[in-house]
Amino acid sequence: PVSAGMNGSAIGNFSCVIYNIFLMNCTWQAGRDAPADTQYFLYWQKSRDEEEVECELYIKDKNHRNMGCIFQNVSIGTEKAYFLVNGSSKDSLIQFYDEYIDLYKIEKLMPPSNITVNCDEIKNDCIIQWQQPQISHSNKDMCFKYETNIKYK
């Protein structure tokens, strides 16, 4: 559907990242032609079966305009999540912005933990071990690739 409202009033540069396993941070920029009093509101829906939820913790700019959101206790499902940012202004109608996002694609993984190195000078080799990072989605044992960078002192 075409969004009603003044052209150029919808947000731009919308992006979200999931970090620290269960936190999600979404940010955006005000529409280039949006009136100065425009306030934006973010809603998301994790799956078609769940209720749409408004942001509880907005990130505000110096003019007290909502320019982002922090979500807590996020879990990643298998469906694309739906995001909607709409706005309001006393001067005009504001166009909405919406997008479907695969949450697993925006998860920033933690580094591996409990890294140990045991070297044997006689055999001239080392064994490096670690625990895989925690992730929030269900395919926990798939697709991990590691790169090691070894520097001799």
UniProtKB/TrEMBL annotation:
Residues annotated as domain Type I cytokine receptor cytokine-binding: 13-106
Entry's Gene Ontology molecular function annotations: cytokine receptor activity
Subcellular localization(s) per the UniProt record: Membrane
Record-linked PROSITE patterns: HEMATOPO_REC_S_F2
Gene Ontology annotations for the cellular component aspect, listed alphabetically: external side of plasma membrane
Keywords for this protein: Glycoprotein, Membrane, Receptor, Signal, Transmembrane, Transmembrane helix
Membrane topology listed for this record: Single-pass type I membrane protein
Residues annotated as transmembrane: none
Pfam families: IL6Ra-bind (PF09240)
Main location: membrane
Name the record gives this protein: CSF2R factor
Source organism (scientific name): Rhadina sibilatrix
Gene: Csf2ra_1
